[in-house]
Amino acid sequence: MKKVLVMVVVAFTTLTSAYALDFNEYKVFNKLNDEKTFKSLNRYLKLNDCQQVNLKTEFMLTTEKLKQAELSENETAVQDVITANLVNLKEILTPEQYDKFVVALNATFDNVREIQYLAAE
Fold this sequence. Notes:
Blueprint: H1 2-18, H2 27-31, H3 35-45, H4 49-72, H5 75-92, H6 95-120
Helix pairs in contact: 1-5, 4-5
């Protein structure tokens, strides 16, 4: 499982470094605090009560840390926050849940990038 985490972090870091610093892309993490989004995520991942509490806490902390990193306009700080978030989620979720979360997160990032690309044309 460690290999999967390392691959995800490397892939994510590579993808984010390939794009200009765009903090709108990271707003996806803010959306995870939304009640409707969280309920959908809960159904998708089939979270237990403890996982729900831990995820809510993790998402709130990540949002606050991302806001601080955005204020400093430091891309490395933003990537560090996201990497820390993924490491913490790996501790909270089962391996199957984590894999499903990463797939959904990557699909969301791809969707955001596609929308931004189309809007720029």
